[in-house]
Structures are given as C-alpha cells and as structure tokens.
Automatic annotation (TrEMBL):
<feature type="domain" description="HTH hxlR-type">
    <location>
        <begin position="11"/>
        <end position="114"/>
    </location>
</feature>
<dbReference type="InterPro" id="IPR036388">
    <property type="entry name" value="WH-like_DNA-bd_sf"/>
</dbReference>
<dbReference type="InterPro" id="IPR036390">
    <property type="entry name" value="WH_DNA-bd_sf"/>
</dbReference>
<feature type="domain" description="HTH hxlR-type">
    <location>
        <begin position="177"/>
        <end position="276"/>
    </location>
</feature>
<protein>
    <submittedName>
        <fullName>HxlR family transcriptional regulator</fullName>
    </submittedName>
</protein>
<dbReference type="Pfam" id="PF01638">
    <property type="entry name" value="HxlR"/>
</dbReference>
<keyword id="KW-0804">Transcription</keyword>
<dbReference type="InterPro" id="IPR002577">
    <property type="entry name" value="HTH_HxlR"/>
</dbReference>
<keyword id="KW-0805">Transcription regulation</keyword>
<feature type="region of interest" description="Disordered">
    <location>
        <begin position="149"/>
        <end position="177"/>
    </location>
</feature>
<keyword id="KW-0238">DNA-binding</keyword>
<dbReference type="GO" id="GO:0003677">
    <property type="term" value="F:DNA binding"/>
</dbReference>
Length: 313
C-alpha cells in the first residue's frame, strides 16, 4: 500500500486548485525552513527545536500540517514513552528544486540575510554552481520570454489564490519568523503578492489589469505594486497611451525569480490534481511543446538531481 505522500492528492471539483495548494504550502517561511532541515537529515522533534529558533506551538503546528499534507510522515521510533520522528515522503523530497531555486535567487539578488546562505556544489562535476532552468522536452535553457502560459480547465484567479489563513508571518509573541529568505516571502508569502506576481508573468502591466485579474481591493493592489517596486522586482513608467496610466514591468531581478515560480507550479501540479485537469498550462515557444521545468548545473550543463547537490557552509 502506498504511503501518504507517495501518491498525488485528489482535489475536490471546483475547489482550490494545484496552484493555490502549492503556494499556500511553499509560501510559509517556517515550512520552507523545516523542509530545508529535513532535507539535511533532521527528523526528530527535539532536534528541530534545538536547531531552529522556534516555539513548541509553531513547530507542532507546522509538523502536523506537513504530515497532513503528505510532505512528512510521522513514524514512531520508541514505544515507552512514545516518541516520533518526521521523515520526508516522496512528495517532500520532491520539493528540492523549489528550495534550490529559492536559495540561488536569494544569494544572487538579496545581499542582506540573517545568516549566510549555503554554497551549492554539484558533486558530479565538483564545481560550485547556479541552477540553470531548462525545458524538460528539448533540454534548452529558457527565459520567461520563451514561455507562454494561460489558465487550464481547473484555472482561474479565484481558485489559484491561497486561502487567507495559509500564511501567518507575525513577529509578535515568543517566536519570530526565521527571516532566512525575506524577499522570497515578500513575493509569495502573501496570498495577493503571489497572485500579483503570477499576473505579471502572464503579461499584466497596468493597475487595472492587476485589479481585474486578482479581484483584490484597489488598496491591496496598490500596496503590493509599491512593495514590488521597492524590492526592485517591478519597475514603473508612464504608459504608452497616456502618461498618467502607469505601466509596471518585471525587472531583471523579477524575471530571475521565474525558476522559483515554475518549479513551485510544477511540483503543485504533480502532487495536487483537480478532476477538471491542470490549473495552468505553459508552452515553450521554441520547441512548441508543453513546458516542464528542469534544472541543470550551469557549469557542466548536466541535469541536476537532489542527491547530486552538496550544501557547503
């Protein structure tokens, strides 16, 4: 019998789709941090507690949620008294391209961090590397301009936005957030931020485009656009038709976040499936086939596997 996390989750018809599920999980900084340590071999509750500046209540909440959503499996390793450890499932291990893409983007584009991000070394060629985004069909490197996308049968903004309570990023109380990847969380750690970034990659430029696509309050859209401009992810300029109609465009920094988005959506579509079909469909314009992201070493150009990446301090 397949264990939880070894088979895709069937989502209810008409409900939240794979995009909403994936962003709701990945857009939580404690979840990312726990996955990072679990990937490094941490399994037991007390070990997580010792290595993370986290409260018992927050750790218990996140471990429970990760087990319920099939990323971790809770396994007894002692009977008297009962003790459990949390092992990565196939679904949990499959998040490594997301984690790798996030670390690479933060290392390249965000100079300030609470702690130094690790160096990634490709064990097959021996070099420190940056992940290179490839088309899974033709194996050629891709940029955002090389990929077109639109909603699929299970798509739509309403179904793709994470639930409001999937992200709590408050520094109040005894436990602050880890602040390991602060700008990543500014982009996907808020339900409207993630949706606005998706709209930008799908071609939205004007305020009205974002407002219409997201169905969010104008004040929220204005706040998110201002935040993205402050982060250097978007740049604003006068519109071509009217100078008072501002136009927002992704910067080089914003476009460099593309692998994070693509790997997150690909993971979500693999592990959360709506009966109507995919939420988003992307196509590589050069080979004209469905775009599936793959990561390669930028030094030797060989495709990456999670087991081939060594983390160095």
């Amino acid at each position: 019998m397949a264990e939880v996390g070894d088979e895709p989750t069937a989502l209810p018809e008409g409900g939240q789709n794979a995009v909403g599920q994936a962003i709701g999980l990945i857009g939580d900084e404690w979840t990312l941090t726990i996955l990072r340590y679990a990937t490094a071999g941490v399994r037991r509750y007390n070990d997580f507690l010792e290595q993370l500046a986290i409260s018992n209540s927050v750790l218990t909440n996140r471990l429970t949620r990760l087990a319920e959503t099939g990323l971790l499996e809770k396994v007894a390793y002692q009977e008297r008294p009962p003790r459990f450890e949390y092992r990565l499932t196939k679904r949990g291990r499959d998040t490594w391209p997301i984690l790798l893409s996030i670390w690479a983007w933060e290392a390249a584009w965000v100079p300030e961090h609470a702690e130094r991000l690790p160096t990634m070394r490709h064990t097959r060629c021996g070099h420190a590397f940056q992940p290179l985004l490839l088309c899974g069909a033709c194996r050629k490197p891709v940029e955002p301009r090389d990929v077109t996308g639109d909603f699929g049968p299970a798509g739509g903004w309403e179904r793709s936005v994470p639930a409001a309570n999937t992200r709590r990023r408050s520094n109040s109380g005894s436990t602050a957030t880890p602040e390991l990847v602060p700008q990543t969380m500014a982009l996907i750690g808020n339900r409207w931020s993630a949706a606005l970034l998706g709209a930008a990659f799908l071609g939205a430029h004007r305020f009205k485009d974002f407002e219409r696509s997201l169905g969010a309050p104008p004040t929220m859209v204005a706040d998110r656009l201002r935040t993205f401009c402050d982060l250097g992810v978007l740049t604003v300029s006068p519109g071509l038709d009217r100078s008072d109609w501002l136009s927002y465009h992704l910067t080089a920094k914003g476009r460099a976040f593309f692998p994070v988005i693509m790997c997150t959506l690909d993971w979500g579509h693999r592990w959360f499936r709506s009966p109507e079909g995919r939420a988003l469909i992307y196509r590589h314009t050069e080979c004209r086939r469905t775009f599936t992201p793959r990561l390669a070493c930028d030094q030797c150009r060989d495709p990456l596997r999670g087991s081939d990446v060594a983390v160095e301090r």
